[in-house]
Amino acid sequence: MSFLPDVLEHVRIIKASINKGRLVADKHASVSVVDLNEAWVSGFIDGEGCFYVYVSVTKPGKRTRVDLTLEISQNGHDGAILQSIALFFGSRYLSPAFDYTSLEMVMQIRSKVSIKVRDVNAIAALLAKYPLHTRKQLDAEDFMRIHALKVHILILPAWHVSGLSRQE
C-alpha cells in the first residue's frame, strides 16, 4: 500500500506525539482520579504491580519480622491513577508525597511515583475474584502462601515458634 506524500507527513506528525513524544502537560491532563472497578485494578496489578516480601531480624535470634507489600509505580504525570488505586485499597499514600493535581509539582518530580498496599486481606480478596493472567500469578500465589504462614505463626502460642514473635 502506497501513501500519498501529504498523508505520510500527517502520519509522521502524529507518530512524533505518541508515547515519549507527548508533552508532559498533555499526559498529566489526560489522567484524573476516578472510581475503579475490581477487574480493572486486577489487570493493572498484572501489568504494573510487584509483590515484595521483606524479612528483617530486629534482634538476632530473638525477633524476625516479615512484611508483605504490593507496590505499583508510574511516572509522576500518572499520579492521579495511582491515587485512584490507593483510594480503591483504602489508602491515600503516594511516595513521594506530592500534589499530583499540580502540573508544576509533576514537572518537578519527573520521576517514579509509587503506592504500597500492605492490606494483604484486601489484595487476597481482589485476586481471588479476579486472578492475574500472567506469570505474575505465580508471584501472587507465593505472596499469599507467605501470608498464610505468617498468620499461622502469629496465632500459635509464642513458645511454639522459637525465634519468631508477633508483630506489634
What this model shows, in words?
By secondary structure, the chain is α+β, with helices and mostly antiparallel strands. It has a single domain, classed as Endonuclease I-creI (Roll). The chain contains seven helices and three strands. It has helices spanning 5-16, 24-29, 38-48, 79-88, 103-109, 120-129, 136-155; strands at 49-59, 63-75, 112-117. The protein has a three-stranded antiparallel sheet. The longest helix is centred in the last third of the chain and has 20 residues, at 136-155. The chain is elongated. The N and C termini lie far apart (67 Å).
Please describe the structure with a list of short key phrases separated by commas or semicolons:
Endonuclease I-creI, 3 strands, alpha+beta, 168 residues, disordered C terminus
In short:
By secondary structure, the protein is of the alpha+beta class. It has seven helices and three strands.
Query: In the CATH hierarchy, what is the class?
Result: Alpha Beta
Number of strands: 3
Cα separation of the termini: 67 Å
The name CATH uses for the topology is Endonuclease I-creI
Gyration radius from CA atoms, angstroms: 21 Å
Q: What percentage of amino acids are in beta strands?
A: 15-25%
SSE pattern, N- to C-terminal: HHHEEHHEHH
Q: Could you give me the name of the CATH homologous superfamily? A: Homing endonucleases
Instruction: Summarize model confidence as the mean pLDDT.
Output: 80
Number of helices: 7
Which descriptor suits the 3D outline?
elongated
Q: Architecture, CATH level 2? A: Roll
- Uncertain regions: pLDDT < 50 for 5+ in a row? 157-168
* Integer tally of domains: 1
Quaternary structure: single chain
Helices and strands: which structural class?
alpha+beta
Strand order of the largest sheet: 1-2-3
